[in-house]
Amino acid sequence: GENVEQHPSTLSVQEGDSAVIKCTYSDSASNYFPWYKQELGKRPQLIIDIRSNVGEKKDQRIAVTLNKTAKHFSLHITETQPEDSAVYFCAASSDAGGTSYGKLTFGQGTILTVHP
Amino acid sequence: SAVISQKPSRDICQRGTSLTIQCQVDSQVTMMFWYRQQPGQSLTLIATANQGSEATYESGFVIDKFPISRPNLTFSTLTVSNLSPEDSSIYLCSVWTGQTYEQYFGPGTRLTVT
To answer: Which run of H or of E encompasses A13?
Structure first.
């Protein structure tokens, strides 16, 4: 089955700096890679996702890059703000005939702390 | 995005009893899932709740321990049976929206077993 490794486990940055979180996956059939933000006591919130037919996707201060050859993808947050502090999870899944979307394998999570 | 609700939001249960968690979605969805998040950990898929047929369980999860029902396209239940303290976790319902090709999570049910 799929295995997703996520690094670092904790990340501390100053407000305004950039933050980068990296994930690697094992199953070359994986083609959907979402990122979730989870604040304490809250549900995971989808913040951005990427599919294997593109290499990069941006949404304001957040971007995700995908390298299919190396089987890794990264989350980039620019101009970080204290409200970006949360746990971030990467995930991967494959669409095996259109029936496997939703069966996500998650990374271990990264605790991001943005200091004012 | 789909609006997902879960009941109960939290519960404290005695060892050996069972808890049934309900998940309601505001629109019809093809695919519903149940995940578990143990304290301070990541999320792990328990099973896919199939409408009109038996759920599909992931490795390490069995129907006797986690029976699931999915009577229609907007509702599912997960029962955690014969509770032990190791079952203390957050259980999350999740849906895949075919229209937007995105996946969303319910607010979760925090289970504590004493």
So the answer is: strand A10-14
Whole-angstrom CA distances from B99 to A33, A78, B29, B103, B106 are 17, 30, 9, 11, 18
Nearest to A112 by CA among A85, A74, A91, A94: A85
Verify whether the Cβ–Cβ distance A101 to B45 is below 8 Å.
no
Which residues of chain B are under the pLDDT cut of 50?
none
CB contact under 8 A, B106 and A103: no
Q: Are strands A45-51 and B19-25 parallel, antiparallel or unpaired?
A: unpaired
Torsion (CA) B90, A107, A100, A1 in degrees, nearest 10: -110
Q: Is A111 on the interface with B (CB under 8 A)?
A: no
- Distance CA(A77)–CA(A63), nearest Å, equals 7
Mean pLDDT of chain A: 92
Q: Which residue in chain B has the smallest CA separation from A1?
A: B59
Taking residue B42's Cβ as centre, other Cβ atoms within 10 Å add up to 21
Of the residues B32, B43, B56, the best mutation for testing chain A's interface (the one with the most A CB atoms within 10 Å of its CB) is: B43
Give CA A65 to chain center in angstroms: 9
B42/A contact by beta carbon, under 8 A: yes
pLDDT by residue (tens digit) across A56-74?
999 999 999 999 999 999 9
Please compute the mean of the pLDDT values over residues A92-112 and round it to a whole number: 81
